[in-house]
Specification:
single chain, mainly alpha, 5 helices
């Protein structure tokens, strides 16, 4: 029975794997700074961290879904990268980066909306916040 080739996982490979989600989260954050600027440094840090985490967690799931729905996109990207003299993997990264950025955007917007909603209701207790949330849900269902 042949022994499978098990290559040790290097720190360089780990850095390459983590670079794409971090860069995608940073790009998502930079894009959304144009629309929802954070009010404090702490809010910016929290929203930035959540965008990176969301890009790292949801991005690969979106890539798997995209690959199962449109597998020729990835192969075409590989071929195009090779035609331009780049490594084939760069074509996959060219497809993956925008998807990862899109995966990080909802976290930034959701956190920004939550901060704004809670700030407008500053000083209210939990019962009043729940009542306000129920009113918002009722208004959305009606209109």
């Amino acid at each position: 029975m042949p022994v499978p080739d098990i290559t040790p996982f290097s720190a360089g490979a780990l850095a390459q794997i983590l670079t794409v989600p971090v860069a995608a989260g940073a790009a998502a954050t930079a894009l959304t700074f144009l629309f929802m600027w954070p009010r404090t440094r702490r809010e910016a840090l929290v929203r930035f961290a959540c965008s990176i985490c969301t890009a790292a967690l949801l991005g690969p799931l979106l890539l798997v879904a995209l690959h199962s729905w449109w597998p020729t996109l990835f192969e075409s990207a590989r071929v195009l990268a090779v035609l331009y003299g780049a490594p084939a993997m760069l074509g996959v990264v060219a497809v993956a980066c925008p998807v990862m950025v899109l995966a990080g955007l909802p976290a930034w917007w959701t956190l920004g909306a939550m901060v704004l909603w809670l700030e407008r209701r500053r000083g209210k207790d939990l019962g009043e916040l729940v009542h306000d949330a129920a009113e918002v849900v009722r208004d959305v269902r009606r209109g």
